[in-house]
Amino acid sequence: MAHIARKRFGQHFLTDQSIPDNIIRSLNLSEDDTVVEIGPGLSALTLPLLEKLNHLTVIEIDRDLAFRLRNTYSPKKLTVIEADALTVDFNQFEQGVRIVGNLPYNISSPLLFHLMGAADKVRDQHFMLQKEVIDRMVAEPGSADYGRLSVMLQTRYKMYSLFDVPPECFDPPPKVMSSVVRMIPLSEDRPIAKDEKLFAQLVSQAFAQRRKMLRGSLKAWQIDWTGLGIPETARAEELSVLDFIRIADFCVDHKLEH
């Protein structure tokens, strides 16, 4: 029986096999790689992954699709975790795990933030997402796409937009263009804010009214902009990730609380 895409799960199934083939080429897999696929769906990417790997783990929220996967592939080749990816602890997987998937667009940002908690375990991540989201992920300071998502993810990953995927490659076709992104966790010696919770709060506040100057949007913290060497007339979109870390650390060092 044909599976009908479920809107509540944000299901759009790949029908153009050239796209999974391009993703597989981008991965440059070894057969003993530890790979976890999020949202295997109808196996468009799962099958070519299994052809390259000794074993694959998939996370599928749809019980009908999970049942189909268990009855299609041997458990020696495929482990099926039937769960919402937002509830899965990705730290359970082996060091160097590679995570791939056509992510449900309705939970893409929460899922990307959830995965940050396991970044120390991850070798790389390759995801298909809404192009607009990936443009924001890889955006540089000064661009219209640069915002909270850019800053928060760039503290943890080096990211590359690989290629676009048009709507007609899916069934049902989404109303947006899609893209594939590569995310590589940064090393342990990356710049890290002294108080990551405060850092996240500052970034969120700075971009809440992105056209506002920082002296207005971050007024509550009473920051010494001259001492930091950052113009108080600057706007959030003009600051680099390092600038935001410097601001957050200044607040910690001077015990400035909102």
Q: What brief labels describe this structure?
A:
258 residues; alpha/beta; Rossmann fold; disordered N terminus; Ribosomal RNA small subunit methyltransferase A; RNA-binding; rRNA_adenine_dimethylase
Overview of the structural elements:
The protein is of the alpha/beta class and 258 residues long. It has two domains: 179 residues, Rossmann fold (3-Layer(aba) Sandwich); 58 residues, rRNA adenine dimethylase, C-terminal domain (Helicase, Ruva Protein, domain 3), CATH 1.10.8. Helices cover 33% and strands 19% of the residues. The protein contains ten helices and nine strands. Strands 4-3-2-5-6-9-7 form a seven-stranded mixed sheet. The protein has a two-stranded antiparallel ribbon with strand order 1-8. Helix 3 links the parallel strand 3 and strand 4. Helix 7 packs across helix 10. The longest helix has 13 residues. The chain is elongated and about 65 Å long. The N terminus is likely disordered. It is an enzyme of class 2 (transferase). InterPro entries: KsgA/Erm, rRNA_Ade_diMease-like_C, rRNA_Ade_Mease_Trfase_CS, rRNA_Ade_methylase_Trfase_N, rRNA_adenine_dimethylase, SAM-dependent_MTases_sf. This is Ribosomal RNA small subunit methyltransferase A.
